[in-house]
Structures are given as C-alpha cells and as structure tokens.
Design goal:
By secondary structure, this protein is α+β, with helices and mostly antiparallel strands. It folds into two domains: about 20-45 and about 55-135 and about 260-390, Rossmann fold, CATH 3.40.50; about 140-260, Phosphoglycerate mutase-like (Rossmann fold, 3-Layer(aba) Sandwich). It has helices at about 1-10, 60-80, 100-115, 140-160, 160-170, 180-185, 210-225, 240-260, 260-280, 295-300, 345-350, 380-390; strands at about 20-30, 90-95, 195, 205, 285-290, 320-330, 335-345, 365, 380. The longest helix has 20 residues, at about 60-80. Residues about 1-15 have low confidence and may be disordered. InterPro entries: His_PPase_superfam. Keywords: Signal. This is Glucose-1-phosphatase. GO terms for molecular function: phosphatase activity.
Length: about 400
C-alpha cells in the first residue's frame, strides 16, 4: 500500500499547464515489442549463414524488454505532465494476449511505467490463444468466403511489388538456396499466389509476397535488436530507400490480408466490443492491452481510421507502437472530448535504443476516424465517438 501511495503522490506532484482541460481516462492498445523470428521457415530461401538469436522463436528478446520499458517510462512521464494521477491498486489494468511475447511486453511495461506497484499482468491462462486477441477466421459462410476471396484477388491485381521482390531476391540469392536446389523454387517473381481461409486460422496468403514478408520481418527484427549491421541481411541493405522498398512488401502483405471491412469485422469484432466496454462502461482510469500488428490493422480498419503517415518509421504498425485513446474533459465548455494518438519509437530510436523522455520524446501522430472530425488540436467530440462505437 505504501508503494502505491508514493507513486500516486509522485504523479500528482508534477506541475503542468492549466487550461481548463483534464485527462480522465486512457486506454492504450499496444503491439508487443521486439521478438525473434516466428520460425525458421525463411532460412531455406538462402544458403548464406543466418545469425543466431539468444531466445526461442517468437519470444520477446532481452532488448525488446528494455525497449518496452523505455517506452513505458516515457508514458509515465507524460501522465505526470498532464496531471493524470493513477492509483495502482484500483485504477490500472494491463491485459495481454496469452503468449510469451505479449505477456513479457506487459510486464516490461509495468516495470517501466509503474515501477513502485508490482501488480500482475492479466491474461487468459488457457492453453489456446485468447479469442479476444485472435485474428482467426470465424464467419465462414460460403457468401463470406467467396467475397473475401474476390476481394483478396482484386487486391493482388492492384499492387506492383516487382522492384521490391527483385531486391529481396538479390539479397537472399534464392537461385543458390536450398529451396531452389531441393524444390525448384529459384526466384521470388514467377510463381503465383494462393489464398487460404480456414476456420479458426488466420487468413493466409501463400506465394512470393508472403515468403518475402517473412524475410523482411527477420531482417527488421535483426535491425531493431541491435545486430551488427554486417549481420542484418548480411549487410546488403545499404540505405533507407532499400528499407522502404522492402517494407513495402510488409505493408502490402498486411493490407491484402486485413484491410477489408468484412475481414476486419470477422477478425476483431470481439476486441473492438471490449474496447467499447472499457471506454464507455467502466471506471478504470488507465488500461493497456498488448497484442499484435494484425490487431492494430483490424482495429483501425473496423473503426474507419483515416489514412495516416508515421513520420520517422517505415512500418505501418511499428514494433512496440501504441494507439492511445484519451478521454478529456473541457471545463471551459463543459464537454468531453476524444484524442487518439499513435505513439511509437522511430526507426532510429529503436535501433539506437534511445532513452525517451519529455525532452527526447517518441514520435506522436494524431489519428482521426471518419465521423469524428478533429479540430486543430487533434480533438473530436466524445459524443461523436460514442455514436461510432454504438454502431459497431
């Protein structure tokens, strides 16, 4: 109890501007932080030696823990700056998906944001993935599947990733890979794509874009995890333009799979309804949910976020990035307002593991939803937001 009181006093002691506005609730949806590759399936596409990782596939790396703690510490400083007192015993909830990288990210967040509190992270202890965070297909009526297949095939026709795939092909040297020698797959250009939609499984794209996305993910995690640059894609990504070209594969892969309203509704309706409950119906002042990039894609699609650009980043859903829903009360007009920001570390901040602070903050981009127009300060009317949630 003493530690909770001391932390509360620390938060309330910060002096900031008093303009008649007051932050009354914060809900964060966060992507987990830096992890090792999800599997070794990518390794057969190159005969070059792959660097080893210090941890098991798909788990948070030690550096990922530190990066999450750094971001969380910044969040706590921001809470102090805006006079947002938090009583850890009653007004904080950290809820994560039930796999290692999200649970560990949750505990790292607690360690950074609320070091005096030491409360447990909440997650479903069952053996299967928490359905709230699952991005598996649920609605598999023939009409739905036919519509999704048609949408995905049309999306594939709209994109042109030839230059990006050629660059990836050159980096991994597919023609000399085990995949080429053993299975005859000797390039990332000439073979086609297929799409699978299976009950209780993530919608999957198969083919060059999907394989290249796994390779991009591996190189990106190497970069974020501080690997020597000669070991990040064997030193063959030489400038920011090439990073952007490769990450176009990542962006388009997720856009193909998740950027359709029907797919987003199928995959994330339970999650969005839970966010609605947390934002509208309960009294917990600060919540942080930790999930995955797929969750971020489907949340922003289902809630009709307008197109946004993340400065200083080449990812659309940066590792460790956080969508921060803020409910404010404006005492001057006696009304509640909403502000949503994407708070994330830049490409450089992640690579250099920079200490974040009010003087050296992470990137913050204000987001907007259709039907909830923002003013010059990034606020929209809370009642408009409520109408959007009620219509989901």
């Amino acid at each position: 109890m003493t530690s909770n009181i001391s932390w509360l006093l620390l938060l309330t002691s910060f002096v900031g501007a008093d303009d008649g506005s007051k932050l009354v609730k914060v809900l964060i949806f966060s992507r987990h932080n830096v992890r090792s590759p999800l599997s070794d399936v990518h390794e057969s596409y190159s005969s070059k030696p792959w660097p080893t990782w210090p941890n098991e596939f798909g788990t948070l790396t030690p550096r990922g823990w530190l990066l999450e703690r750094i971001m969380a510490k910044y969040i706590s400083l921001w809470l102090q700056q805006v006079h947002f007192p938090v009583d850890c015993s009653t007004n904080v909830d950290i809820y994560t998906n039930n796999i290692e990288r999200t649970i560990s990210s949750g505990y790292a967040f607690v360690e950074g944001a609320f070091p005096q509190c030491g409360f447990p992270v909440r997650y479903d202890s069952g053996s299967t993935i928490d359905p709230i965070f699952s991005y598996s297909s649920r609605n598999l009526t023939p009409e739905y599947e036919e519509g999704v297949q048609r949408y995905l095939k049309n999306k594939l026709l709209e994109i042109d990733l030839r230059e990006s795939l050629e660059l990836m092909q050159d980096i991994v040297d597919v023609k000399n890979s085990p995949k080429c020698k053993e299975e005859g797959v000797c390039d990332l250009m000439s073979w086609g794509h297929t799409i699978s939609i299976v009950p209780d499984k993530e919608p999957l794209l198969h083919g060059p874009i999907a394989i290249s996305n796994k390779l991009v993910d591996t190189f990106l995690m190497q970069y974020y995890d501080g690997f020597d640059m000669k070991d990040v894609a064997w030193g063959l990504i030489t400038n920011e333009t090439e990073w952007k070209m490769l990450l176009d594969i990542n962006k388009n892969y997720h856009d193909i799979i998740f950027n359709d309203t029907n797919i987003a509704r199928d995959l994330s309706l339970s999650l969005v309804k839970l966010l609605k409950k947390y934002l509208l119906e309960d009294d917990v002042k600060f919540r942080c949910l930790v999930g995955h990039d797929a969750n971020v894609f489907t949340i922003t699609r289902l809630l009709n976020f307008t197109t946004y650009e993340l400065l200083g980043q080449n990812e659309k859903t940066p590792i460790g990035g956080k969508i921060v829903f803020q409910k404010w009360y404006d005492g001057n007009t006696d009304r509640h307002l909403l502000k949503i920001e994407y708070v994330y570390a830049s490409f450089k901040q992640l690579r250099d593991m920079e200490e974040l602070s009010l003087e050296n903050p992470p990137m913050r981009v204000t987001l907007e939803m259709e039907g909830c127009s923002i003013d010059s300060d990034g606020f929209c009317m809370w009642n408009d937001f409520v109408q959007i949630l009620e219509a989901i």
